[in-house]
Amino acid sequence: MSFPILLLVLSVAPVLFLLIFVYRKDSYEREPLPLLLPTFVAGLLSALPAALMESVMSLYQPADPVGASFYNGFCVAGFCEELTKLLLLSWLIWRNRNFDEYFDGIVYAVFLSLGFAASENLMYVFGQDSFLSSFFTGSMRALLAVPAHFLFAVVMGYHFTLAKFDPQHRTRHLFHALFVPLLLHGTYDTLLMLSSALGADGGGVTGLLFVAFVVFDIYMWRWGMRRIRALQEMSQQQHFDRSQPFAGFKWFCLLLLLLPLSGQAQTARGEAPNPDKTRMLIILNCSHSMWDAWQSDAKIKVTQKVLLRFLDSIAPHDDIEVALRVFGHLNRGAYTTRLEVPFAPDNNYALQSKIRTLVPNGGNTAATALTSSLNDFPTTGASRNIIVIITDGIDDSDGDICTVARHVQLSGIVVQTFILGIGNPDDFRHSLDCAGTFSYLPDEADYTEALYDVFRRSEARAPVVLQLLQNGAQYETVTPVVFYNHATQVAQYTVLYCSDGIQSPDTLWVDPLVEYDVVVGAQPAIRRDGLHFHSGDANNLSIEVGEGSLRLFHSAQRTTWPVPQYDVLVRRHGDAALLFRQRMGERSQLCAGSYDIDILSQPRMHLDNITIQAGNATDIELPMPGLLNVIKPRVLSDGVLFVDRDGVLEEVCRLNPNLAVERLVLLPGKYVIVIKPQNSSYQKEKTHRITITPAQITNLNLTE
Fold first, then answer.
1. Is 155 left (phi over 0), alpha (psi -120 to 50) or beta?
2. Bridge partners (DSSP) listed for residue 298
3. Please, are residues 186 and 57 in contact by the beta-carbon 8 Å criterion?
4. In this structure, are residues 638 and 676 in contact, taking their beta carbons and an 8 Å threshold?
5. pLDDT at 144
6. Contact, 552 vs 667, CB < 8 A?
C-alpha cells in the first residue's frame, strides 16, 4: 500500500467507524442515506467558513501564552466551529420531515460533525513535511480529535432534539445546544494548548494538565454515552432494538484507556412500555368562512392539502386510528355536525376521500361538534383518546365551548384536546386555551408542523424518575405511590416504590398529556397536586417523606397470664379522624409531626401530642398491666368497675352477673367496684376499693 493511501485510510477510518456506530444505534427507524450523505458533505465543507471565522478571531488573541491558550480554545476553535455546526444543522434538518424521532438529532449532528472532523483530518495529515509526521498526526487525531468531535456532536444533538420536541423550553435547549458543546470543546482544546505552551518548562504543572485532560476525557465519554442512552429510551417509537455496540467499539475504548465499559455508571431508567393504541378524532371546521383566502389558497384548500399529507405520513403506523367529524358542511346556513369517518383500522383511504370532497357551506358549531364527540370513541379496547379541532376562529354559534370542553375533560374519555387556529388572528377574539391546548398557526409550514407535533405528543411517553427522600437523601423504603388524573381523580398509574437507599430508582413512563395528582402511601398520605411531566428530559419527582417510627410496648416483667396486645389508634394532633390502627409491639412508620394516641386497654389510655421526628425511632414504654380476679357470691349481682382518677370515677366496664369468677386485665392504678344484688335495695350495695400493681394478681372475694 502506498504512503498516500495509507494516510488517507488513517484519516478516514476513525470517522467511518464512529459513523457506523451511531447509525447502528438508530436501529428502529434509520434515517435515509440520501439525507445523511448531504449532511456529511455539508460537514466537510463547513471547515471553510469555520476557518474564515477563526482567522478573523485569531487577530485579537492575547500575547500572553496562557491567555492565548484560553482565547484560542474557547473563542476561536470552540465558538467558531460549534456555531458553524449548529447553524448548518438547523438549516438542513430542523424542518425536515425525517426529523421525527428523539434519537435523530444525535444522528444528524454526528454525521455533520464527523464530516467536519474528516475535513480537518485530511488537512492536518497531508499538511505535514514527512510521512512519519503525517502518520503520528493521523494516529493522535484518530485517538483524540475525532472521538472528541463525535462527543461534542452527541451533546449538541441531544439538546437540539429537546429543542425540537419540547417547544415550551425551546430557547433554553437551543442555547444549551451551542453553549455546552462550546464549553466542552473549549476546555478540551485549552488543556492541550496549555500543555503545549508550557512544554518542558512547565514541570509539575504540565503533569497536572495531563491528568486533568485524562479525567476530562473520561467525563466526556461517560456523559456522551448517557445522552445516547437517554434519547434511545425517550424515542417516539419506544421499540428500539437495544443491541450492544459491535465489539470493535469496546476495544477502541480500551485502546484509549479512557472509558472501560465495565465501569460505566448505569442510568436508572426503566424500559419505556409499548404505548397503547392512540385514537385521534379530527373535528374540522367546514363552515362558509373557510372559503376565505389564506396563504396560497382558500383556507379549506390549504387544510385539505395539509391533512392529506399528514394522513399519508402516519399511514404506516398501526398503533394510531383516526376519525373525522365535520361541522358546517351539510346545508347552507345550517349549524350541523356529523361523524363522517368513524374509527377503524386501515381507514386512511376513506379519510382522504372524504377530505377531498368537503365543501364549506353552513355555520360554525364547534361547541356542538365537541359535545357530540364523546360518542365517537369506541368503548372497547384500551386507547389514549385525543381530539384535534381545526378552526378559523369565526364563531357563529352561541355555544359555550369552554363549558363543553370542561365536560369532555371530566368525562375521562378524552386525554387531551388540541385546538389549531388558522386564518386571520383578529378572528380569534378570545383565547381558546380554556378548551384545550390552543395554537395559532400563522402559515402553512406551522400548520403542518403543528399536526406532526400533535402526533408526536400523542405517541410520546414522559419518563418520571421518582425519588422519596429522608432529610434530603434517598430513602430506603417500600411504599405505594398512586398517580391520579387531576381532572377525573381516577388512578392512572400505581407503583410500589422500592429502594434500598443505594441504587437509583427505576423510571416510570407516564402520559405527558395528563395533569397528575401524586399520592404517596405514607401515614398520613403525602400529596403533590397539579403536576405536569414532559416527554423531553427525565422528569425528576423528588418528594420529601420525612418518616419516623412509632412503637408502644409493655415493660419487661414476667406474668403468669397472657398479656393482651392492645389495639392502638393513631390520630393527627387535634384531629378527630382516625389515621390508622396498629397493635402493641408493632413498629409503624409515620410522617414527622404530632399525634394523639389511644390505647384500647382497660381502662383506655390516651397519650396527647406525641412528637415523631424524621429518621428517629420513638419508643413508648407502658407499664405492665395487672390481673384482677373478682370472686362473686352465689346471689346474682350487678357490678360496675370504675377507675379512680384523683377522686373522679370513670367507668371501665360492667361486671358479668353470670360469671362466678371474673378475670380482668387492668392497667396499674386505683379502682372502685360497686356491687348490688339483683332486686335488692340500695342498702345492700357494697363498695370495694382496690389497687392494681404491674404484673401482679389481685384477688377480690365478694363472698366474705
1. alpha
2. 293
3. no
4. yes
5. 84
6. no
**pLDDT score of 394:** 63
Is the Cβ–Cβ distance between 117 and 145 less than 8 Å?
yes
pLDDT at 450: 85
DSSP per residue over 385-449, as a string?
EEEEEEE-S---S---HHHHHHHHHHTSS-SEEEEEE-S-GGG--S--GGGSEEEE--SHHHHHH
R_g of the chain, CA atoms, integer Å: 38
Cell representation of residue 556: 419487661
Whether residue 596 contacts residue 573, with contact meaning beta carbons closer than 8 Å, is answered with yes
Q: What distance in Å separates the CA atoms of residue 62 and residue 72, rounded to the nearest whole number?
A: 9
3-state secondary structure of 567: strand
Rounded CA gap, 449 and 543, in Å? Answer: 37
**What cell numbers appear for 204 in the block?**
509539575
C-alpha 577/C-alpha 579 separation (Å) is 6
Are the beta carbons of 521 and 482 closer than 8 angstroms? yes
Give CA–CA dist 304/281, Å, rounded: 16
d(CA 348, CA 283): 16
- Residue of 143, 50, 155, 77 whose CA lies nearest to 109: 155
On whether the CB atoms of residues 438 and 419 are closer than 8 A, the answer is yes
Residue 553: which H helix or E strand, with range? Answer: strand 547-554
Question: In the prediction, which pLDDT does 242 show?
Answer: 33
pLDDT computed for residue 255 by the predictor:
36
- What pLDDT score was predicted for residue 2? 62
What per-residue confidence (pLDDT) applies to 581?
Answer: 92
- Cβ-based neighbours of 643, under 8 Å, separated by 6 or more: 603, 649, 650, 652, 666, 669, 670, 671, 672
**In the 8-state DSSP scheme, what is residue 591?**
E
Give the pLDDT means over successive 10-residue stretches in the chain (704 positions): 76 88 78 88 89 87 84 87 90 83 87 90 83 84 86 90 81 90 88 74 68 79 79 51 35 34 34 65 89 87 90 82 88 75 90 90 77 86 86 62 77 82 71 74 84 81 87 85 84 83 73 88 91 84 90 85 90 91 90 93 92 91 92 84 93 90 93 87 85 92 80
H/E element, 313 = helix 299-314
Q: How many Å apart are CA 37 and CA 115, to the nearest integer?
A: 10
User: Cα–Cα distance between 108 and 128 in angstroms, integer?
Assistant: 31
User: Is the sign of the CA dihedral 186, 189, 191, 197 positive or negative?
Assistant: negative
Q: What is the rounded distance in angstroms from the CA atom of residue 568 to the CA atom of residue 111?
A: 67
Q: What span, in angstroms and rounded, lies between the C-alpha atoms of 669 and 74?
A: 82
Q: What is the DSSP letter of 279?
A: E
Place of cell 428530559: 537
Between the CA atoms of 48, 52, 55 and 59, what dihedral angle is there, to the nearest 10 degrees?
-170
Q: Whose grid coordinates read 418518616?
A: 547
DSSP letter at 280? Answer: E
Close Cβ partners of 235 (under 8 Å, ≥ 6 residues apart): 28, 101, 102, 103, 272
Q: Which domains does the chain have, with CATH numbers?
A: 3-263 (no CATH), 277-459 (3.40.50.410), 462-544 (2.60.40.1120), 547-622 (2.60.40.1120), 626-701 (2.60.40.1120)
- The whole-number pLDDT of residue 360 equals 86
Query: Side-chain half-sphere of 695: how many Cα atoms within 13 Å?
Result: 10
Beta pairing, strands 437-440 & 462-470: unpaired
